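Tutorial, part two.
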Amino acid sequence: MFAYKGFNRELQATLGKGLFQFEKGKTYEEEECKCAKNGFHCAENPLDVLRYYSAMDTRFFIVEAAGDINQDGHDSRISCTRLTLIQEIDRIGLAVRGCMYMENHPERESCGSHVAKERGECNRKGDFIIVRGKHPAAAGVKGSWLFLVQEARNDRRITGIYPIQIDGKEYREGVWYGPRRGRICEKKRSES
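Running the prediction step on this input gives:
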């Protein structure tokens, strides 16, 4: 199965009681796996990776988890006996895949500091916020990304995903934005 994993900037991650050095394209094997104890950890939901590796210099990979796989119900994390690093993605690529995960699994919760319900702000250049709801609204600083994930009126199905980069021109810092009739619009104070 394909999943997501975070690493420090040297492409190291915690394994057992220390750091383990990884390389892109290599396959690694362990004898056994049990979440929070041993094996190679990764997450099905890309956004869950940020619970464990959230620093701005974190490196993210799409990985193939194989062999024995263990899940413990703590978010979407899994532990596996065989792991291959497939492709490196950047922070915004992780956010895009997180939005796609929401669209494919609308009933599953995604939470954390990068996900907000109905209203949220991103206050860090190069970072992002995903705002999900019936009437999502977001604002950010220049260089940040806003992902507005709109739900259907009567259920949690995703009806639209609207990415915005605060560039200082088309989308301005400190201004609240939200979808309206399939387009991104500024939100009036009473709307946001």
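Helices lie at 91-104. In part three we will examine how such features are distributed along the chain.
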